[in-house]
Amino acid sequence: MSETTISVFDAKSLLTLFGARDQHVRQLREALGVNISARDGQVYIEGPSAAVATATSILEEFQSHANRHGSLAAEDVSRMLAAVKDGGVPGDAKNAPVEVFKPGRQIRAKTPGQARYLDAIRHNDIVFCRGPAGTGKTYLAVAMAAAALKREAVRKVVLVRPAVEAGESLGFLPGDLQAKINPYLRPLMDALHEMMDHDLIRRYSEEDLIEVIPLAYMRGRTLNEAFIILDEAQNTTIAQMKMFLTRMGMGSRIVVSGDVTQIDLPENTRSGLIDALERLKGIDGIASVALSTADIVRHPLVQRIVDAYESHGKHKTGDRGWGMGDRK
Q: Are strands 210-214 and 226-230 parallel, antiparallel or unpaired?
C-alpha cells in the first residue's frame, strides 16, 4: 500500500476536480480501487502502489483539463477512464503535447485511438485515418501540420478537400469560383484558426506558406518539404487518390482522413480512400489508423447519433463502404 498527495489551490478547484457530489472521484475510486480524500488543500490518494500511480496521473490530467477548459464534464472523466481500461494513461510519454502557434496552446490526444493516430503521423510519411464524425481526424492532422511548420520541419502546409456536394448543390450560389469553393474548405480553416491567430494565417497565406485548396488544383504539381492533408478523402475517386498521393515530393508528409460511412460520390463509384486502404496495405512508411465511436470527442450526443446510424445500417454492405451505414 502507498499514499500520495496532490495540491489543490482553492475550494472551487477542489469542487471542479471532485465533481458534484464527488461523482468524478467516485468513478475513479470504483475503477481503480483506491481511497481518495481531501483536507487542508491537499488531495490524498491511498491504495496499491500501481493503482495510486495511475489515479495520480488521472487526477493531474483532470486538473490540467479543468485549467484549460474551465470545467470538467462527466464525459471527460469517462473518456479518461476508458483510456486506462484500454491500457493508456493520460499524460504519459506516448501522449506528448502538440505545440502549435498560439501561446500556451497545447493539443493532446484525448483517447487511445487519437494517441495512436498522432504516433502514426510522427513516425510515417503517409498516414491514412478513417473514422466517424467527431473523432478529431481533421483537427489533429491540422495540429500536427501547424506544429511541423512552427518548428520548420516543413516549408509549407497544404490543406486539400475534394469539392463533392453532400446532397445539395452550390452551383447557383453567387460569386466567383473562389467564393463557390470556400464552403468546402471552411472546416479546414476552422481547425487552423484554433492553432494560429488570424493575422498570422493571413500573412502565411500571402507568403504561400499555407494553402487551402480543392483537390482538383493539385493536378500537375510536386510538393517538396510540405505537410499535406487530404480531408474528406472518402469522396475521392480511385484516379483522384492516385493523383493526390503522387504529388508527394522530397521531405513531405501526407495525412489522408475520411469517414467511409459518409460517401457522397455517385452511385457505383468506388471510393478512392477504400481502394487505397486495400491497395497500399503493408507498404513500409505508410500507416493506417482506424478510429471508432469510442474516440468521439464532440458533444456526447454525437456518439449516440453515430451509434444509432451504424446500428440501423449495419446490414447494408457494398463496394463503396464498409457495411456501416447509408452513404449519407
A: unpaired
- Report which secondary-structure segment, H or E, holds 119: helix 112-123
What's the CA gap between 142 and 160, in Å, rounded? 11
Task: Give CA separation, 215 vs 134, 230, 231, 235, in Å.
Answer: 23, 8, 10, 10
HSE-CB for 7 with a 13 A CA cutoff: 1
Q: Strands 226-230 and 253-258, how do they pair?
A: parallel
The mean pLDDT of the chain is 81
Cell of 155: 516549408
pLDDT above 90: residue 234: yes
pLDDT digits (tens, 9 = 90+) for 238-251: 999 999 999 999 99
| Residue 80 C-beta-side C-alpha neighbours within 13 Å | 26
Q: What confidence category does residue 106 fall into, taking pLDDT thresholds of 50, 70 and 90? A: confident
Rounded-to-integer distance, Cα 68 and Cα 60, Å = 12
Please name the residues in contact with 68: beta carbons below 8 A apart, sequence gap of 6 or more.
none
The closest of 117, 44, 111 to 84, measured between CA atoms, is: 111
Q: Determine the Cα–Cα distance for residues 285 and 119; give it in Å rounded to an integer.
A: 13
DSSP sequence for 255-311: EEEE-TT---SPTT---HHHHHHHHTTT-TTEEEEE--GGG--S-HHHHHHHHHHHH
Which amino acid would we find at residue 184? Answer: Y
**Cα→Cα distances 55→48, 76, 97, Å:** 10, 15, 20
- For residues 138-162, give the mean pLDDT: 93
Mean pLDDT across 276-299: 88
Confidence at residue 164, expressed as pLDDT on a 0 to 100 scale: 64
